[in-house]
Model the fold of this input.
Amino acid sequence: MNRREHLKQTIFAMTGLSLSMGLIEFFEGCSSGSLPEIKTIGKEELDFLDELAEIIIPQTDTIGAKGIGAAAKILAYIENNMEVPIQEDFRNGLLFWKNSYDKQFTGPLHQRSEEEKHLLMDSIANQASTNKDPYHTPFFPMLKGFVMLAYFTSEEVGKKVLAFDPNPGTFISCIDIDEHTRQWTI
Amino acid sequence: MMQKYDAIVVGSGITGGWAAKELCERGLKTLLLERGRDLKHGDYPTAQSDSWDLPNGGKLTREELEHYPVQRRSGYLDQPTRHLWVHDNEHPYHEESGFDWIRGNHVGGRSLTWGRQVYRWSDLDFEANAKEGIGVDWPIRYKDLAPWYDYVEKFIGVSGKSEGLQHLPDGSFLPAMEMNCIETYLTEQIREKYTDRIVTIGRVANLTMPHLGRGTCQYRDRCIRGCPFGAYFSSQSSTLPAAFATGLLDLRPHSVVKKIIFDEGSELAKGVRIIDAETMEEEVFESDLIFLNASTLATAQILLQSKSNRFPNGLGNDSGQLGKNLMDHHCYAGAQGQSDLFPDKYYKGRRANGIYVPRFRNTNAATTTGKYKRGFAYQGAGAREGWSRSIPEARFGAKFKEAALRPGKWTLGLIGFGECLPYENNQISLHPSKKDGFGLPQISIDMRWQENELAMRADMMTDAQEMLEKAGFKNIRTFDQGKNPGSGIHEMGTARMGKSAETSVLNAHNQMHGVRNVFVTDGACMTSSACQNPSLTYMALTVRAVSYAVDLWSKKALQ
Ligand SMILES: Cc1cc2nc3c(=O)[nH]c(=O)nc-3n(C[C@H](O)[C@H](O)[C@H](O)COP(=O)(O)OP(=O)(O)OC[C@H]3O[C@@H](n4cnc5c(N)ncnc54)[C@H](O)[C@@H]3O)c2cc1C
Ligand code: SF4
Done:
């Protein structure tokens, strides 16, 4: 199977979406592209990161990742907590995808259709799954991990989205739940 | 002016708190010396903090982590607890081989951060050395300690379930905590499929009902930050208030005990020399009785530093065993699996306790394995997976979000806690040149897991795997994280009890063979390590030793 076919099938397997050939070419280009010139993270990249976070955890009947200010939290977390190589991998990953996006589209990411947003995230995920570079951490698992950490440890989500019970008082070992039950805030 | 007390206790953690309480309640004017800062009951700044109240999602920054190159190895270090661990760069020691010395120097010691699992030892443990010709024989048996286990359990409050096992004796229990559905299921499966082992709920020093003026556990699982309700046993919540209530306790924080002063004439210890950690001034305190409770390694360090003409190699070290036979439990090997059962069941409340599989290898003729000596127990827990389960998946979007918000599959893990044999070459000594900030010699630790421990670890994985398989769990994964000695945080040995002054440091009452008024009742005294968590046994040994010492003191037999 050639690379293009492989990419198509992988994305289909992950998302159930079948892709037009034009978009395939775009994603293929992204997956094998080179690093952008050195650039720092500014307002545009911060907004782009917020949009990526929102694609992972969108607003539904509950708040989404952008609503809790995921991008700012993630960048602060990375700067304070991560080792320099991880910081660099993350920054390079973010700039790489922003660069790739800018080459293909004009205007901010939130203006794209749902399908386009999903295809972008699929290609980020796909690059991670095919990346065998042992010296660099792929972008997608970092991005997703940081988005989820920021989202699930935020006050809005802890108090209003999950089941919040700071002082349970008792332990009930077995309760009935249904498909709408949310997990407890920890 | 020299200050004289009836008794001095060194260290205010689990065992020092007990020694102080018992000495004071028996009428002795007691000085409790603690090297760290004071920490009052209730002064638990993060006890009510939620994750959003803490910076960086509760994780330490890179800069903060630089203070804790050793403490971070434990996995317990985070924002809410960082004030309860030592800054390693201020408390250096030399690692001849990798050894994780995990500790907190403040009033209360590790009584604040401990996991509160409490299990009695039995004669299977006390007789093992003698039967197998390993180390030296314990000078006591279970019957010597049983009443003191009762005494301690009744005071600290232990919730647990009686199981009638000879090798894991039942105690005086408060009502047991409940198991959740997957744990109950495993318990039933093991009962059905095995005759040599059981699963029971953890025996834990958390209160399931009000007890001696302390409140019931609120099921928040935040014990490691300190409990504002006093609902688990710590020096702060339990022993220190009792000691202070007598009016006979003086607590002196910031007091780094440097050495025990030995009087060559009377062959007794006269008192202790301290360095005031705030002023760096040295001071001497005198007393009739001295209890060493600075924790295994620190106690051995003080004894090794206490050199005299009579004891050129450390106080009471006629046997040459001081510093030797260091042990710890080897943990972090086991298995975990998932279950599709009970998708419509959950639990309410965060139970600060797990399940326990008592030792089932080499307990009798039928369970004897030729592969290794002694055995291991499992600690574990069942739970529904949380949101982090979804990180490795490639999914995202609205459907993914809905799924991630819901409880995940049931999962259950079992982690082995294995006995470590006493080996003379697992030891500490004073480093010939390296010093700490007080100008005291650093200790050098040389401890390695040996053949017996390594052979046991293979079973710790495969037995857990087999139990989970037989119980119908899926996606079972074994693990062996192979961590350093010390990582079990149950370090013990270095001043062992024994019958003879030629081969041991302490007698059957934790009294130094060579110095009658010095008692060591922390983990340093242990002659073997069993596989049960050791602190309950340290506490029982402490109260037993105090009772003996005060008896001698009252009869003026320690002058
Ligand atoms: C995360 C964790 C989980 C644990 N879980 C369990 C468990 O479930 N069950 C169990 O049985 N055990 C458990 N332990 C181990 C338990 O905490 C120890 O066995 C116990 O605290 C030992 O009591 P101790 O009095 O000897 O020492 P500590 O409680 O450590 O107290 C020693 C005190 O002495 C002070 N000190 C040291 N040197 C000097 C000096 N030179 N001068 C003056 N003071 C000094 C220290 O500052 C400290 O306050 C756990 C420990 C940790 C950290
Ligand atoms: S879980 Fe219970 S014992 Fe632990 S801190 Fe909360 S109330 Fe206290």
In short: Residues 451-470 of chain B form the longest helix (20 residues). Chain B touches chain A through 50 residues (CB under 8 Å). The CA atoms of residues 496 and 525 of chain B lie 4 Å apart. The radius of gyration of chain B is 23 Å.
